[in-house]
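In response to the reviewer comment on reproducibility (Comment 2.3), we provide here a single inverse folding case reported in full, input and output, so that an independent group could reproduce the run without further information from us. The structure tokens appear first.
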């Protein structure tokens, strides 16, 4: 199993002053990650997974939490809640085979959106992708996902449509 990159753990503060930890995901987070996905609104889950699943299938959950921190990296944002660690956001990239590009996605719990969580996650994710030699991060966003498209533009992404595909936008960030 890959060594946990402890040096990437960050203590940060949200726009409203809430302390938050941004840290690489670990295998032990699988329960917390599943709870996070179950707790998303139908809209947020649909925008992230482009399907109607209510929770992650076990193989996908394993893939999402047992990562190599190199070709696949994921950061979670967590807060303390009644003495437990609660996941409020996650961002990940996965390498695209044979290229210096990776695909990314970011999701924040509905109750925690608009507080800077995604911005903090993306700072860590971009730094990690750059450190691992990636030159470009790309993503696919549903055209109806106005929040993500606005956020992507604020990150500096180029957003474009492929001809004939009205429902999807591609977002691309040079690192
Ligand atoms: C899209 C999504 C990830 C945004 O997450 P969020 O945590 O609400 O975003 P943030 O709070 O970090 O950003 C909120 C605002 O602060 C800005 N901001 C955040 N960090 C910033 C930074 N470091 N510098 C400048 N601005 C920043 C954002 O651009 C945004 O600006 P706005 O207030 O003008 O809209 C969230 O709505 C979500 O999870 N949606 C459902 C899942 C989804 O669609 N995922 C995308 C799949 S590809």
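Designed residues, in position order:
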């Amino acid at each position: 199993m890959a060594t946990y990159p402890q040096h990437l753990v960050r203590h940060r503060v949200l726009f409203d002053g809430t302390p938050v930890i941004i840290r690489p995901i670990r295998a032990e987070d699988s329960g917390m990650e599943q709870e996070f996905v179950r707790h998303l609104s139908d809209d947020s889950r649909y925008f992230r997974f482009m399907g109607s699943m209510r929770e992650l299938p076990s193989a996908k959950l394993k893939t999402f939490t047992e990562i190599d921190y190199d070709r696949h990296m994921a950061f979670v944002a967590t807060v303390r809640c009644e003495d437990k660690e609660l996941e409020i956001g996650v961002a990940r990239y996965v390498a695209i085979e044979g290229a210096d590009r990776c695909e990314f996605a970011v999701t924040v719990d509905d109750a925690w959106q608009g507080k800077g969580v995604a911005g903090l996650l993306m700072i860590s994710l971009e730094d990690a992708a750059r450190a691992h030699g990636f030159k470009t991060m790309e993503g696919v966003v549903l055209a109806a996902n106005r929040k993500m498209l606005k956020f992507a533009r604020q990150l500096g992404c180029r957003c474009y449509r492929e001809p004939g595909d009205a429902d999807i936008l591609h977002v691309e960030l040079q690192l």
